[in-house]
Write a structure and sequence with these properties.
mainly alpha; 2 helices; lysosome
């Protein structure tokens, strides 16, 4: 009789263990499903993709800005040369005017 109740207890224990394993599996699947829904709902992939694209665009904007700054530096140098030339010519004009006045006297 003891062996029949032992078999019965083992059978019950085995069934309980199997049901518990099934419930654990169902819960794990449900948690995975919730995680997927949260990820889809948060749109984190789209946000990360958008951020990466904006970052890459910023690099292009920085490169363009650097190019524009170099062009502006070249323009400043040219303007400085032209300013010096105009100042020198203005001084020469004053000297020339003085010479013309002295010749007229």
């Amino acid at each position: 009789m003891a062996s029949a109740s032992t078999k019965s207890a083992k059978c019950l224990f085995g069934e309980s263990k199997a049901r518990l394993a099934d419930r654990v599996q169902v819960n794990v699947n449900n948690i995975a499903s919730i995680a997927r829904q949260i990820q889809r709902g948060s749109k984190s992939n789209e946000i990360l993709l958008h951020c990466a694209k904006n970052f890459a665009d910023q690099q292009t904007a920085l490169d363009n800005s650097e190019t524009n700054v170099k062009k502006l530096e070249a323009n400043v140098s040219q303007l400085e040369v032209q300013y010096e030339s105009m100042t020198r010519n203005a001084n020469l004009m004053e000297e020339l005017n003085e010479q013309v006045r002295s010749m007229q006297r």
